[in-house]
Amino acid sequence: MNIGIVGLGLIGGSLGLDLRSHGHQVWGVSRKEETCQRAIARGAVDDASTSLTLMKNTDVVFICTPLGVMQATVEELIPYLSEDTILTDVGSVKGWVVDAIAPLWENFVGGHPMAGTADSGIEAALRNLFVGTPYVLTPTETTPTRATQLVEEVIRPLQVQIYHSHPHDHDRAVAWISHLPVMVSASLITTCMGETNPTILELAQALASSGFRDTSRVGGGNPELGVMMASYNKAALVQSLHSYREALNQMITWVEQEDWIALEAALKQTQAARLQFLR
Ligand code: NAP
After folding, report:
1. Amino acid 131: pLDDT
2. Probe ligand 1: pick from 33, 54, 77, 92, max atoms within 8 Å of CB?
3. Could you read off the pLDDT of 229-243 as tens digits, one per residue?
4. Any idea what the Cα angle at residue 114 is, between residues 113 and 117, rounded to 5°?
5. Which of 4, 7, 27, 175 could form a disulfide with 64 if both were Cys (CB 3.0 to 4.6 A apart)?
6. Beta-carbon contacts of residue 268 (< 8 Å; ≥ 6 apart)
7. Does the pLDDT at position 4 exceed 90?
8. Percentages helix, strand, coil for the chain, rounded to the nearest 5?
């Protein structure tokens, strides 16, 4: 197929690398000429340009820009598409994106590959980034079945686990397991940096090992992405942050009151519950 990718960064570049290796022709558009040249040199695209005219013979187009420019990008793109072209996006938030884009283009299905790294830009693009990871599609009552089927046909060879959900259900679910962890992990780093004794802080930094690496990883990622998650999934994120604060207050109470029985019971429950999120 002729596949278009608009936004040649971590996700767009990684999709390009894999889709080309599965025999598709991949055409890329990015904002900067330099990015286009790097995408060609890295083998992420057959050709790339800063002009959306390159999208004119595509069968499927993946919008891989930051969330904040997706709607404007689609508005600019539409004059170059043939009416059969299927449009999809990779945005980390789906309610807002689907509400904004579905009225603009009938053959649109929202998508979210649940894969990434802490890096961004075309240099961060990786082969096989999506292998074994969930890929959520968010068709609504008005999404043509053919649009969903064609996107599935393109992404299935990347060895992803395909899920379908309503856009707003997706946003509530990812608030718990993706957006809340970013805020919690960032707060952990901020709290540790609050140590006022420089000797203790330096010692803590020297002693930090795998536990800190695991719990701080998502809080040390791309700040722009964190702000996008918060601003475009505000309601679900605020709700999850309030619930988290309640859980933290409960922990404080147990420790202050030396209620080790209640603490142990809670930790036994979380030990078992964690596995249900990592099946
Ligand atoms: P990224 O590495 O920063 O890539 C985005 C790319 O879009 C940039 O390299 C930029 O290229 C290009 N771009 C920016 N504005 C543009 C415009 N107006 N027109 C065309 N291209 C433009 O970000 P990313 O991590 O790949 O994220 C892209 C999308 O994937 C976001 O919507 C995000 O929500 C979603 N997502 C991210 C992750 C993750 O973990 N990172 C996971 C799943 C989904 P130039 O250099 O040309 O400006």
Report:
1. 98
2. 92
3. 999 999 999 999 999
4. 105
5. 7
6. none
7. yes
8. 60, 10, 30
- Measured CA to CA, the distance from residue 5 to residue 15 in angstroms comes to 8
Beta-strand runs (E) in the chain: 2-6, 25-29, 47-49, 60-63, 86-89, 108-109, 111-113, 134-137, 161-164
Instruction: Identify whether the C-beta of residue 76 lies closer than 8 Å to the C-beta of residue 106.
Output: no
Amino acid at 52: L
pTM attached to this predicted model: 0.92
123 C-alpha vs ligand 1 centroid, how far in Å? 12
- Per DSSP, the residues of 39-99 read HHHTTS-SEEESSGGGGTT-SEEEE-S-GGGHHHHHHHHGGGS-TT-EEEE--S--HHHHH
Tell me the pairing of strands 108-109 and 60-63.
unpaired
What letter represents residue 122's amino acid? Answer: I
Nearest to 94 by CA among 59, 130, 135: 135
Give the distance from CA 132 to its chain's centroid.
15
